[in-house]
Amino acid sequence: MKRHLLSAADLTRDDALLILDTGEELARLADRPIKKLPTLRGRTVVNLFYEDSTRTRTSFEAAAKRLSADVINFSAKGSSVSKGESLKDTALTLEAMGADAVVVRHQASGAPHRLANSGWIQGAVINAGDGTHEHPTQALLDAFTMRRRLGSFDGRRVTIVGDILHSRVARSNVRLLHTLGAQVTLVAPPTLLPVGVATWPCAVSYDLDAELPKSDVVMMLRVQHERMNAAFFPSAREYSRRYGLDGRRFAAMPEHAIVMHPGPMNRGMEITAEVADSPRSTIVEQVTNGVSVRMAVLYLLLSGSESAIGQIAQIGESE
Amino acid sequence: MSSFLLRGVRPLGGDPVDLLLADGRISEIGAGLSAPGAHVVDADGLVALPGLVDLHTHLREPGREDAETVETGTQAAALGGFTAVHAMANTSPVADTAGVVEQVWRLGQQYGHADVRPVGAVTVGIAGEQLAELGAMADCPAGVRVFSDDGHCVSDAVLMRRALEYVKAFDGVIAQHAQEPRLTEGAQMNEGEMSAVLGLGGWPAVAEEAIIARDCLLAAHVGSRLHVCHVSTAGSVELIRWAKGKGWDVTAEVTPHHLLLTDELVASYDPIYKVNPPLRTAADVEALRAGLADGTIDAVATDHAPHPDEAKDCEWAAAAMGMLGLQTALSVVQQVMVDTGLMSWADVADRMSTRPARIGRTDGHGRGLTVGSPANVTLVDPNTTWTVDPHALASKSHNTPYRRLTLPGTVYATFLRGNATVLDGKLA
Predict the structure, then answer these.
(1) Which range of residues forms the domain containing residue A261?
(2) Rounded Cα gap, residues A222 and A232, in angstroms
(3) Which residue from A minimizes the CA distance to B186?
(4) Residue numbers in A near B199 (CB within 8 A)
């Protein structure tokens, strides 16, 4: 595995499967009375968040703490030059504090690349969402959830619906699911697909109803109401009618198919309450799985070796 | 005034001759010249070009002397083989009055490394709302002929029409930064395959081409002269070819970086590659080279844009747009146009001296290597290479995208009206 996790494209199929398998081992901890492993004792993980994201930050925090790492939460507002401290100076500060890993969420696409490649810090950099670029641990937890529900990826059809243009979740999922052997179809109004999407390893459709009957997974993305002000679509109602997942469309999906959403949801916009709360919706499960997968990523990047799974099993037995 | 005898130079890459520069002019051309008292330069095998003229330079003074000054910028120009540069108007204060353009012009005269021709802003404060006093800038000692809001597009069609018409009174030209503003809100890089993957806001080719098409039609309608700055797309080349085919008075420039670099470099997220207009695709680069070779594109212009380190040492979205260009322009052109066989040295002289001087009405420049012409001469050694070290450049800033790259061709000497500004590759 590479030293940083910046993009889902950094992961080979073996890397991704190792993370998912390690996550499964670590997930078993959650059923024990003592949920903590000593693995990262004495290591420091910094959560560097330039955007508010309680769910992702707390997920990484729980993951690091369950591995006994020291966690520093560093909330930074604004970006460089114009307001506050520059990314470089913040990075040099974190380096001086001895960060072994920096988990970064930033509104600028590529900010984690800059942290990892500019020589400002030595530790591992984990991308926790950068602008409209990528969110690789979200894709890993989504894959983890799919594998648990469906068994394998080969030939599975995953339909991702919504604001692909601005979605880092979609970009990471397309890369990772392709690597893992699934077939991805993106569904969106043409205005919310990037120019250049034709070169991505996936199919593209404007017609949700045509895709639903052949989908094993339907992943709904959050669509912001404000997008209609920039003429991406005429109104929230029209968006819902054409691209929202309601009870009627849910009924058109195969019986084994699941519904996913990375959250936070816009109930009534891209998804109705009855679908979101159905037993075939994995939305809450995704949150739980997020902690296991992020534990696996931290574990493999900070103390990583191929024998990770064996070690965890041993520790499990000795407790 | 000292005189120089250049022995064995190859004018425009032709057969070796001697060139005598005396009294500010090329006084003699021939074999085995002798000139008692002249400084003899053993220039055996060096290519002699008319002094290069840059239509598009950001010297940053007044206002951003931390990035560049007229002194350091013209030193970089001389070392790059230029004898005249056109200083863009987006300074602070903006060069939108006779006072500011005259200040910049006088600073150029004071340092003497290269002639500085100030470009005047088209609109007050480059705000795109009201015409600046173009006539006052034309009539002042700086004698402004090129007007541009560069950095911003004169996007209002009526304002652009009026500007094109108005400058006819004093033989001026509007140099347009073609960028439709609404189509480029939040734009960070070329819109296409790479922007889709990298999640950076797209700067579509159509935003440049739509303005160029409109401006060509406007210029034709009112019978004015239009110059298009830093053309970056294949479609733009086609539009300019079409306008020229109609016989309209439209000229265009291309930057060295758009002739060499592509948007694939943005995958590093290193803002050293952030520039406006953005780096485009390999297909665009190919079309630009072809357009320059066949003369559709008239000039190579550097868009030399110095920025302090902190403006690039940050995340992509926060970084400033622009890159250095004066000291690397001729080498890049040699690499992509001459060494590839697309252009001769005579073509280089045409695109980097004759035509830019004509577009800018830059008196005394671009006149060719003939007896009696002003002695603005550049000597380049095409058989040497050099490795670009950002900290060894004369510019105050270091934002060159060619760092650590080895390029062909070194400027050996530059003469401005018979005086050496550069000799033996160093400032004279």
Answers:
(1) 136-282
(2) 14
(3) A108
(4) 109-110, 130-134, 168, 171
